[in-house]
Amino acid sequence: MSESRVFSLNGMDVGAVVSRVEGFFRTEKGMEVQSSKTADGYVMQASQQKDGWKTISGTRLAITIQMAVFGNQLNVTIGEGQWSDKIGAGAIGLFIAWPLAITAGLGAYKQKKLPEEVFRVIENFIVSGGRTAVVNDAGAVVADGMIVCPKCKSQVVGGSKFCNYCGTKLENECPNCGATVTPDSVFCAECGHKL
Question: Which of 67, 148, 162, 166 could form a disulfide with 41 if both were Cys (CB 3.0 to 4.6 A apart)?
Fold first, then answer.
C-alpha cells in the first residue's frame, strides 16, 4: 500500500525539497537516507539503523519515497516501510513476552504516521519558499508571519482562524473582555484576565 500527494513547486528546485526531506530523516528521526536521481525525479529510502532491540521490539522505522516532477507539479508517493518486524514482535508478544505486543503496536503507530509527517515537511518547505526553521535549545523557531497550532504543532499562517492541518480553532476570546487571544495565552493581553 502507498500514499500519494501532488504539490505545486512554485518554481522551487526539487533538489532542495529532497535535501530538506533528507535532513528531516537524519536530524529529526535519526534515520539513514539514500537518494538517487531518476529520469523524472528522485527515489529515496530511509530507515533507522539495524539495532537488535528495535528489530525485536518492532519499533524500527523504514520508508521509501518516489518524487516525480511533471512541469511545475511534484508527485510524491510514499511506499510501505518494514512491517514484518512489527508483525513478528506482536506475534511473539501475544504468546511469550506480552511487552513486545505493546512495543510492536507503538512501532506500527509510528510507521503509520510517518508518511503524513513527510508530506507536512514537504508542504511547509514549499510554502515557506525553502526557508527552513532554525532549531536551537528552545525548539524550532517559528517563521515570520506564522503561528503554531497548539494541537498538532504545525506552523500555519498568522491570523488563521483554524489550523489547515488538523482543523483546531486558533482564535479564542477572553471571557472577561471579549478580546481575541491566542490559544497558548495564559493571560489576556487587553485586560490581564487569567485564561
Answer: 67
* CB atoms near residue 82 (< 10 Å): 17
Helix/strand/coil (H, E, C) string of the chain? CEEEEEEECCCCCHHHHHHHHHHHHHHHCCEEEEEEECCCEEEEEEEECCCHHHHHHCCCCEEEEEEEEECCEEEEEEECCCCHHHHHHHHHHHHCCHHHHHHHHHHHHHHHHHHHHHHHHHHHHHHCCCCCCCEECCEECCCCCEEECCCCCCEEECCCCECCCCCCECCEECCCCCCEECCCCCECCCCCCEC
Q: Are 156 and 165 within 8 A, CB to CB?
A: yes
Q: Choose between 108 and 148: higher pLDDT.
A: 148
- The mean-pLDDT minimum among 55-69, 79-93, 109-123 falls in 79-93
The one-letter code for the residue type at 146 is: M
- Give the separation between CA 150 and CA 152, rounded to whole angstroms: 6
- Alpha-carbon Rg for the chain, nearest whole angstrom, is 20
What grid cell was written down for 145?
508571519
Give the C-alpha separation, 169 to 175, whole Å: 16
